[in-house]
Amino acid sequence: MGLTTAMYTGLSGLNANQTRIDTIGHNIANVNTHAFKGSRTLFQAQLSRTISAGNGPTATSGGVNPTQVGLGVSVATTQRNFNNGAIETTGINSDLAIEGDGFFIVQDEEASQYYTRDGSFVVNGNNELVTQDGHYVRGFTVDENFNIQPTILGNLTIPLGTLTDAQASESVSFDGDLSAAGLIATAGTVHTSQAFTDPGGTAATAGTTLFDLRNPGSPGTALFATGDVLSVSGLTKGERSLPDATFTVGVDGNTLGDLADWISAAVALNTEDGVPGSPGATIVNGALVITSNTGTANALGIGAADFVSNGAVSLPLQFSQTQTASGESKHTSFLVYDSLGTPITVNATFALEATPDTGPVWRFYLESPQEDGPPVSVGTGTITFDTDGNYVSATGDTVQLDLADTGAATPLSFTLDFSSLHGLSTQSTRVIGEQVDGFPAGTLQSYRIGQDGLIEGAFSNGESRTLGQVAVAVFSNPEGMLAETDNLYSRGPNTGEPTVTVAGQFGSGTILAGALELSNVDLSEQFIGLITTSAGFQASSRVISTSSDMLDQLLLILR
Q1: Is the pLDDT of residue 516 over 70?
Q2: How wide is the angle at C-alpha 72 spanned by C-alphas 70 and 75, nearest 5°?
Q3: pTM
């Protein structure tokens, strides 16, 4: 009976060491598997056979210890080592490694959820971030405004080359100096045409039709007929050229007043209430008088041959300058963007309006050039500084552009921020549109993933947008995970509920992009384990063979 028990005891040693050699072999086979976690086999003694429980000390005896004979060994568990492996730099954006605790969350085509430390991800044909086996990488997605939705877990997409984005402008910030040392802008240019009459010789008025318009020296010759086209070219405003324009008689207007209004609009004169200098195109004693807004940067340049007609009279309007513009002023321009990302140029002209005891006041004029016509006046306002040249307030700083028939949202509304301007008496006026929000349409060209798993996309227009955030799951007992194929784990009965979070929170590690975690198997330790396991297996087999020899000797007694 005792020898047979010894043989089974040796057999338990063989079985236990076989399990351990399986574990070591699995570890060594996966020494180059990314994020592989090595395991160890732990033994424990089997139930011992108690021959005597012993007894305690008495008045006449010192006590007797128990007498027990062990019945061998059993496998207690195979324990997985979740210590971090070394980090290998790959330079591939989609490769991710977790430095610290936590698991990436992936999902297969049947919506079953798994966990992995292997971050060798790729972007598939549908621009989705997936594992090498096609499992979807899960994370927090973004809404239409690229804001992270922290409670919605979904498949992460990185639409390189396909996602385009644009944003309408909402504000424009200016910087520079509006010098208070110059002359107040009190006058604009005045250009006066020849005096017109009607066929009866009476001075023309705004209501005189263009067909009745005459030069005093040629009362029998009409200056215009229906269908005549008046072409305007060569006009200047400040130091910039104004675009060519045409006026068709009978289509764009029929009276001299209609022509005056058209000219006022063609040169983008701002005639709002409160604007100094009485700008506009008016009829005075039969003559057409064009008065610009004040300041040298608003000065109009009109030549004698800038208005040409294809009708009977080739030069029906001949202007001469009767007043020059004066006053400190400065012109600049900036771009804003509509909801489709189309750039729109806005010209801004600043003119010194007053220098009261409370501080200088400047006026700005805004106009927007058009692709198929003259510029459009889009607003005016004032900028007030204190006696130290600091910005105080502004009026008219909310601008609206009519974008009807462009396909973009209309009107485009944006604010002007003048808080960085100064009103000191500098040598010259300098002003620029320093910062404009909004941007043109751009295509996603590249991306990067931060330590918190945030995916930032870079667009061709220089902008960046958040595309999503890689989620991380943390378990209170990761050793309770069940190993699956393809470097995956699933929840086990003893893992606890996962905490789904972002990297760096709730005890999770940080994410390293362009890197992969290596296996944490220590080869030297495994080789030592091979030696000790082999010795244990061999020694257990000797127990069996020795027990067999003793049985043979016992059987010889019977011969």
Answers
A1: yes
A2: 130
A3: 0.72
More reliable by pLDDT, 559 or 199: 199
> Which residue stretches of 41-176 are H helix?
none
Calpha distance 423→440 (Å, rounded): 33
As a whole number of angstroms, the distance between CA 454 and CA 384 comes to 44
Contact 322, 192 (CB under 8 A): yes
Rg (CA), the chain: 45
Whether pLDDT at 1 is above 70? no
The contacts of residue 367 (CB under 8 Å, 6+ apart) are 268, 270, 346, 347, 349, 375, 376, 377, 378
- Per-residue pLDDT tens digits for 348-376: 999 999 999 999 999 999 999 887 778 89
Give yes or no for residue 3 having a pLDDT over 80. Answer: no
d(CA 267, CA 189): 12
pLDDT exceeds 80 at position 68: no
Q: What is the pLDDT of residue 2?
A: 67
**28 in helix, strand or coil?**
helix
Could you give the CA distance from residue 15 to residue 533 in angstroms, rounded to a whole number? 11
Rounded CA gap, 283 and 290, in Å? 9
How far is Cα 269 from Cα 285, in angstroms, rounded to an integer? 22
The pLDDT assigned to 63 comes to 85
Long-range CB contacts for residues 491-495, cutoff 8 Å, separation at least 24: 491/115
Nearest by Cα to 30 from 517, 519, 527: 519
